[in-house]
Structures are given as structure tokens and as C-alpha cells.
Automatic annotation (TrEMBL):
Organism lineage string: Bacteria, Bacillati, Bacillota, Clostridia, Eubacteriales
Transmembrane segments: 17-37, 78-100, 112-131, 137-155, 176-197
Record has Transport as a keyword: no
Stored Pfam families: SpoIIM
Originating species: Clostridium sardiniense (Clostridium absonum)
Keywords (A to Z) from UniProt: Membrane, Transmembrane, Transmembrane helix
NCBIfam families (UniProt xref): spo_II_M
The protein, known as: Stage II sporulation protein M
């Protein structure tokens, strides 16, 4: 286990540029999400406010359907993670991978800001309970996965347009499959948290402070 951790550390140490790019696009996405909420027109804001108000009012009355929720959470993560993995093996995948990181950041920034501002600042509890627990797990995993994907995709690009011979890729040569399996296992933990823990935290917050 120590050897694998050391390999991961060495691999990411040599991928600093990719780390900075992924982090930059993710943070830009968050900022754009915040700005999008600030610039919403009154009609759209009212529609979303009505939706979330109805959701909050129903939280304390309806039982949680974990089966449907699990399917939605799994589908959401598949739509993000699978494209990152697929495009990592293409020479043109890097911009798409960074765009997916941007979208993920935008989603978090938009949702958190909207929940925070919808109830005149009183939505902090809902925003924290619905966004933070699972994303503490998701975000590091997605960042690490994106770094791996960028490294592989860049190698493919160099092989196609710069060098015609295979280039040694540190991520692939240093237990890349094992790292990928670990990251996917961490994502599964995040899915469990989002499906079975977050709804109960939200329900507790809503019933105690908003109903």
C-alpha cells in the first residue's frame, strides 16, 4: 500500500501543470456558476425558488425513495466520469476533459449560491448539507482522474503530431490501472454518501430549522 501511495505521489508530482489546469478550470466554473445566479432574471429565479420551496416543504412529509435516488446519482456520475476516461485515450481529449471540469465547477457554484441566496441567507444549512458531504469525496477524485486523463491524452497528442514513436507515460507505467480502481472506489463511496446520508442530513436540517 505504501508503495502504491508513493507511486501516486511521484506521478502527480510530475503532473503539476495538469493539476493547475484542472484546478483553474474547476475554479473558473465555480465563479461562472456564482455569476450565473447573480445575473438570473426575476422570472427564472422565481420559478426555481418555487421549486425549491416545494421541495423543502415536502421533505419532512415524504419518505425518501433510495432506489430512484441511487439511479439518479449513479447516472449523474457516469455522465461525468465515463467521458473523462474515454476522452483520455484520444489525442483531442484534453479540451473536452477541461470543459467537463468547468461544468462540474459551474454546477457546484450555481447550486450552492442559489440555495444560499434563495432564502435570504437562511439557506446556508441546506446549501451545506446538500453540497458539501459528497463533494468532499467527489472533488479530489475527479481532480485526480482529470489529471490522469490529461496526461494520457497529451501523450496521445504528442505521439500523433510531434513524435511518431510511443512516449513513456508515467501515469500508465506506474500502476495507472490500480490508481484508477482506487479513484472509482472513492467515487462509489461518494455515491453512497450522496444517496443514503445526504438526504437524511437535509431532512434533519429542513425539519428542524425550516418547517
Amino acid at each position: 500500500m505504501k508503495a502504491l501511495v508513493k507511486k501516486i505521489g511521484n506521478a502527480f508530482e510530475e503532473q503539476k501543470l495538469y493539476y493547475l489546469l484542472v484546478l483553474l478550470f474547476f475554479c473558473v466554473g465555480i465563479v461562472l456558476g456564482v455569476y450565473a445566479v447573480k445575473s438570473m432574471n426575476p422570472t427564472d429565479r422565481q420559478d426555481l425558488t418555487s421549486y425549491y420551496t416545494s421541495f423543502i416543504n415536502s421533505m419532512g412529509k415524504k419518505p425518501i425513495d433510495y432506489g430512484i435516488l441511487l439511479l439518479e446519482v449513479v447516472k449523474k456520475n457516469i455522465l461525468l466520469i465515463v467521458p473523462i476516461i474515454i476522452f483520455s485515450f484520444t489525442f483531442f481529449g484534453s479540451p473536452i476533459i477541461l470543459a467537463l471540469d468547468l461544468i462540474k465547477g459551474f454546477t457546484i457554484g450555481y447550486t450552492f449560491t442559489f440555495l444560499l441566496t434563495t432564502f435570504d441567507g437562511q439557506g446556508l444549512g441546506i446549501a451545506l448539507s446538500s453540497i458539501i458531504p459528497q463533494n468532499i469525496i467527489y472533488i479530489p477524485s475527479i481532480i485526480a482522474l482529470s489529471i490522469m486523463a490529461l496526461s494520457i491524452s497529451t501523450t496521445k497528442f504528442k505521439e500523433k503530431f510531434i513524435r511518431k514513436t510511443p512516449i513513456r507515460n508515467l501515469i500508465l507505467n506506474k500502476g495507472g490501472i490500480n490508481i484508477l480502481i482506487i479513484l472509482l472506489c472513492v467515487v462509489v463511496i461518494g455515491i453512497v454518501v450522496e444517496t443514503y446520508i445526504c438526504p437524511n442530513i437535509i431532512k434533519f436540517v429542513v425539519t428542524k430549522f425550516y418547517l
